[in-house]
Each structure stands twice: as structure tokens, then as C-alpha cells.
Specification:
Length: 177
């Protein structure tokens, strides 16, 4: 019983697992519920890197931010979905660039760090424009600090819900984060 209580109180990954990005049936589902699929038109804003370069877009062989800045990409194919070791999620997109005035420019293949493109890097503006309802509300995410978690953990130990060994093990996990 103690273990079950502990898992629900101290494992946000269990509760947030439903919001993990995934790629199923040729559709990418972002953490915020936004879908990227074949035939969809993506609208890019401006790059937030030096000289207008995009932080969320990686094109092998060149780096021309003007190809994306305030332009659209019509998605032709999605592939190679993966989540990197630090937890950044990527998808390979093949598509057609279309300017704001509707002129077709060229086809392009690029890797998109889609969560970062939607939310923005470290407080910077998003590079991919999506409806507000699909942007994760960072204020709604658990904001408990490690100190808060340790205090809750210690209270469980004091109340006899968990043993000293369980307390020490979980405390070490929290401090190692």
C-alpha cells in the first residue's frame, strides 16, 4: 500500500506519460496534443538564433533561415521520430516550401525539434506557429521544487507511510536529478 501511495505522489512521469510525444500511423502527436501529418501546412515564424537561424530546424548541408522565416511548409512525409538522451523530441519532415504570397519555392528535408519549435527555446519565442490550445502551459506543469518534494517525502517517512530505507532511496533519486 505504501508503495502505491508513493508512486502516485512522487512519480510525475506516471501521471504525465499520457502527454509524451508519439508517432503513430504517419501522424506525430506532440505533448500538447498538436498533430503533424502528411498534407498539413506548417507555418514558421522567425528563427531565434544568431542571424535569424532556426534553433528547432536542422537541414543537412545548408542553413538558410529565409527558407523558413514567415513561410509555410506543406508536409509530404514524416519519418525518423526519436527522442534524444536529454529528452528532446525530433521528427524528419520532407515537404514543400511555400512563401506567404503562395509561391512554391522548393522541396526540403529537415529535422524538426517540434516541442522546442512550439514552445520556444529557453523562454524565446516559438519558431513554429500553432494554435494556443496546443502550446503546453508551463504554469500548469508540476512546479514542485526538489525541496518541496523532499519535504513531502520526509512527511511520509515521519507519518510511517514509508520506511527509512524507502525515504533514503527516494531522497537520493531526487537529489540526483
Amino acid at each position: 500500500m505504501r508503495l502505491i501511495i508513493f508512486i502516485f505522489l512522487f512519480s510525475p512521469s506516471v501521471l504525465l506519460a499520457q502527454n509524451n510525444p508519439r508517432f503513430e500511423n504517419d501522424t506525430l502527436y506532440t505533448s500538447g496534443g498538436y498533430k503533424i501529418y502528411r498534407g498539413q501546412t506548417l507555418k514558421f515564424a522567425e528563427g531565434t538564433g544568431k542571424k535569424g537561424k532556426f534553433r528547432s530546424v536542422k537541414v543537412k548541408g545548408y542553413d538558410y533561415p529565409d527558407d523558413f522565416t514567415n513561410n509555410y511548409i506543406v508536409v509530404e512525409d514524416l519519418s525518423e521520430f526519436y527522442i534524444s538522451e536529454p529528452g528532446n523530441a525530433y521528427i524528419r519532415i520532407r515537404g514543400k516550401i511555400i512563401t506567404e504570397n503562395g509561391k512554391k519555392k522548393k522541396r526540403i528535408n529537415f529535422n524538426l525539434a517540434f516541442e522546442k519549435a512550439i514552445e520556444g527555446f529557453q523562454g524565446l519565442k516559438p519558431e513554429l506557429i500553432v494554435p494556443e490550445e496546443f502550446k503546453l502551459n508551463l504554469k500548469s506543469k508540476p512546479t514542485n521544487s526538489i525541496a518541496d518534494e523532499l519535504a513531502k517525502l520526509y512527511k511520509l517517512y515521519q507519518d510511517g507511510v514509508i520506511t527509512k530505507e524507502e525515504f533514503e532511496t527516494q531522497k537520493k533519486k531526487l537529489l540526483d536529478q
